[in-house]
């Protein structure tokens, strides 16, 4: 007997990531949106009918499709006045930094020492923390929320509990189990779901870097959050093109770009925000000024070049802590400057941060 849900569950394969507004867009942030612009989402938008106003689900292109890395911390980077909260949150992550703020100085230093050992073990294990190791730690810390979301969903996908997620496990957990040839025979819009399934399988194959059809946690994370992984860049671009390129010529025309946001009612004047989006397309998206976006331009738009924030912070911490100026940090150097890396009850919110730790 075949078992299946009454309808597939595409929400299980929707990776969620914060979307911040493009700095040049006049339309400010409208909250969080789903990264994966799936065929199902487009179908639901179409069912709402033509509307002479922007859809709150589609959102302005300034934040609906564009991926901007979240800041390492919302705190002011103000070391000069003894406030190291930015450094704490960059090095530990916001929630863990709060935990450290409740520790005694002795507990805080002890835990920092264990972190130093972890950083070195994750690198070359030579007993020193290099710039690359420090940067990798900060980057790892900043992606903790993504890894946590994958861990929370892991058991939904890993149905045989073997520590990996096979394509068939993910497909069945997401869409339900069907015998070959009977896929989606019991649901409306079967062709749409078949396209979604094909698209998900293609993304899974790219995320599955060793090609064994079994996803590790890292590979599943790449499947769910492709915008965070350089090797998934091409699939993000391909999916965006497929969503927008209605005439299937391999390019995004300005009207296709606008149609992703807005459907005009008959006789309605185009709103000012739409005219602004047309200007965005002309001035900032269409880099070669040929009136359309190719794959490279789509990539520059949805995955724009960004400053390597973890590297900037790692350089800062190295500069402030490398007392012998050898370009690397010993465990002693980090612990000597512990209050820049982590907080404690005695160094909470900068109150006593200007005092040397030996005075505490």
TrEMBL record:
Keywords: Calcium, Chaperone, Endoplasmic reticulum, Glycoprotein, Metal-binding, Repeat, Signal. InterPro entries: EF-hand-dom_pair, EF_Hand_1_Ca_BS, EF_hand_dom. Its main location: endoplasmic reticulum. One of its GO terms (molecular function) is calcium ion binding. SMART domains: EFh. Residues 145-180, 232-267 form the EF-hand domain. One of its GO terms (biological process) is protein transport. It is found in: Endoplasmic reticulum lumen. Pfam families: EF-hand_5 (PF13202), EF-hand_7 (PF13499). It comes from the Eukaryota. One of its GO terms (cellular component) is endoplasmic reticulum lumen. Probable molecular chaperone assisting protein biosynthesis and transport in the endoplasmic reticulum. Required for the proper biosynthesis and transport of pulmonary surfactant-associated protein A/SP-A, pulmonary surfactant-associated protein D/SP-D and the lipid transporter ABCA3. By regulating both the proper expression and the degradation through the endoplasmic reticulum-associated protein degradation pathway of these proteins plays a crucial role in pulmonary surfactant homeostasis. Has an anti-fibrotic activity by negatively regulating the secretion of type I and type III collagens. Interacts with PCSK6 (immature form including the propeptide); probably involved in the maturation and the secretion of PCSK6. Belongs to the CREC family. This is Reticulocalbin-3. It comes from Balaenoptera acutorostrata (Common minke whale).
């Amino acid at each position: 007997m075949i078992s299946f849900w009454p309808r597939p569950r595409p929400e299980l394969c929707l990776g969620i990531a914060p979307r911040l507004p493009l700095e040049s867009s006049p339309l400010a942030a409208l909250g969080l949106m789903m990264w994966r612009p799936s065929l199902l989402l487009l179908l639901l938008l179409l069912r709402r009918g033509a509307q002479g106003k922007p859809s709150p689900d589609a959102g302005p292109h300034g934040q609906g499709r564009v991926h901007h890395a979240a800041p390492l911390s919302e705190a002011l980077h103000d070391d000069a006045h003894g406030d190291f909260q930015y450094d704490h949150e960059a090095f530990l992550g916001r929630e863990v930094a709060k935990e450290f703020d409740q520790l005694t100085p002795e507990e805080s230093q002890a835990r920092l020492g264990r972190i130093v050992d972890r950083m070195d073990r994750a690198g070359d294990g030579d007993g020193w923390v290099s710039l690359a190791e420090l940067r990798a730690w900060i980057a790892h810390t900043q992606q903790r929320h993504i890894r946590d979301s994958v861990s929370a969903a892991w058991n939904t996908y890993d149905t045989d509990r073997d520590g990996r997620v096979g394509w068939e496990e993910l497909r069945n957990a997401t869409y339900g189990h069907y015998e070959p040839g009977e896929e989606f025979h019991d649901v409306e819009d079967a062709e749409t779901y078949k396209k979604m399934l094909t698209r998900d399988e293609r993304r899974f194959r790219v995320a599955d870097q060793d090609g064994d059809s079994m996803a590790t946690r890292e590979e599943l994370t790449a499947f769910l959050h492709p915008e965070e992984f350089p090797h998934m860049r091409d699939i993000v671009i391909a999916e965006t093109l497929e969503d927008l390129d209605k005439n299937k010529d391999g390019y995004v025309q300005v009207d296709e770009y606008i149609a992703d946001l807005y459907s005009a009612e008959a006789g309605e004047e185009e709103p000012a925000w739409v005219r602004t989006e047309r200007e965005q397309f002309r001035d900032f998206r269409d880099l070669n000024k040929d009136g359309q976006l190719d794959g490279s331009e789509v990539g520059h738009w949805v995955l724009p070049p960004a400053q390597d924030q973890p590297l900037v912070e790692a350089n800062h911490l190295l500069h402030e802590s490398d007392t012998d100026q050898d370009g690397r940090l010993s465990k002693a150097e980090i612990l000597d400057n512990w209050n820049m890396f982590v907080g404690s009850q005695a160094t909470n919110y900068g109150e006593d941060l200007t005092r040397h730790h030996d005075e505490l």
